[in-house]
Design brief:
seven-stranded mixed beta sheet; 8 helices
Length: about 260
C-alpha cells in the first residue's frame, strides 16, 4: 500500500457532491489542527464526521497515516459496522469503529466525534474525581460529562450499548483510565468543545500541583457559566469563527495544508 502523503488531487472528484467535499475539507483541516496543537497520539485516535443522509455513513482517517498526511480525498467513508462504502487503498482503525459507530448510530444531534488522550486528559481521567468544574473552563463542562468504566481497548460491538448509556444526552464521554470522546453538532463545535476540555484538564493538572485548597464554585455559578457558554456557541457562530481563525493561524505558521 502506498502511504506517500499528499498525492491526492486538489480538485474535487466528480462523484462527490459539493456538500461532501466541503465536509471532507473541513474534517481534514480538523485533523491538521489536532496535530498543530500537539494533541495527536502518533497515527492513533480518530475524528469522524457524519455525512448527510439517513444511512449514517461517516468519514474517518485512513489508519497508518500521520494526521498531517490526511487530505480531503484520502479520508475513508464507512458505515456503522466500519465497512468501507467506497473503494480506497486504506483501511480504518478497528479500535475507532466501536466508539464512533456507537455515537453516530445513537445520537441524531451529533455530527462529529473526536477521541484523544493527551497527557493531561489521560492523567485526569485516571483519577476517581474525573474532570473538575471549579475553573473557568471546567465550569463550562458542568453537567455535560458522562463517565464510562475502562473495559480494555475499544474493539468490540458488545461495548457499544454501555458506552452510549454512559454518554446519555451529554457531549463529553470520559473513558476512565483511557481518554475522552467529545461529540457535537458540527466539526467546528466539536473542535471548540475539545479545546475547552483540554484547557480544563491542563489547568486542573497545574492547580493540583500547587499547595493549598482550591476556591470552589457553587452549582448555581457552574450552571450559569455552562448555559452562557452554550448560548454563545449556538447563537453567534462563535465556534466556526474560532475554528477558521485557528486554521488561518496554522496556515500562517505551516503553510497550506495540502
Amino acid at each position: 500500500m502506498d502511504m506517500t502523503p499528499r498525492t491526492q488531487t486538489l480538485f474535487k472528484p466528480g462523484h462527490l457532491s459539493d456538500e461532501e467535499w466541503a465536509l471532507r475539507c473541513e474534517l481534514a483541516e480538523c485533523y491538521h489542527l489536532i496535530d498543530y496543537f500537539g494533541w495527536t497520539e502518533t497515527i492513533f485516535n480518530h475524528i469522524s464526521a457524519r455525512l448527510p443522509g439517513p444511512a449514517h455513513h461517516y468519514l474517518v482517517n485512513p489508519f497508518g497515516l500521520n494526521y498531517t498526511e490526511i487530505t480531503p480525498a484520502n479520508l475513508i467513508k464507512v458505515d456503522l459496522n466500519g465497512h468501507k462504502i467506497e473503494e480506497s487503498p486504506y483501511d480504518g482503525n478497528p479500535a475507532g469503529f466501536a466508539l464512533h459507530a456507537a455515537i453516530h448510530g445513537a445520537r441524531e444531534d451529533v455530527h462529529c466525534v473526536i477521541h484523544t488522550h493527551t497527557t493531561p486528559v489521560s492523567a485526569v481521567v485516571q483519577k476517581q474525581g474525573g474532570i473538575d468544574h471549579n475553573s473557568f473552563y471546567g465550569a463550562q463542562l458542568f453537567g455535560r460529562v458522562g463517565y464510562h468504566d475502562f473495559e480494555g481497548i475499544t474493539l468490540f460491538a458488545e461495548e457499544k450499548g454501555r458506552m452510549i448509556a454512559s454518554l446519555g444526552d451529554k457531549h463529553v464521554l470520559v473513558l476512565r483510565n483511557h481518554g475522552i470522546a467529545v461529540a457535537e453538532a458540527s466539526i467546528a463545535k466539536t473542535f471548540f468543545l475539545l479545546w475547552t476540555v483540554q484547557r480544563a484538564v491542563e489547568i486542573q493538572c497545574a492547580a493540583g500541583a500547587l499547595p493549598g485548597p482550591d476556591v470552589p464554585l457553587s452549582d448555581d455559578i457552574k450552571t450559569k457559566c455552562r448555559d452562557l457558554a452554550a448560548q454563545l456557541i449556538s447563537e453567534s457562530g462563535f465556534a466556526k469563527q474560532f475554528f477558521t481563525a485557528m486554521v488561518r493561524k496554522m496556515h500562517t505558521e505551516r503553510g497550506p495544508s495540502w
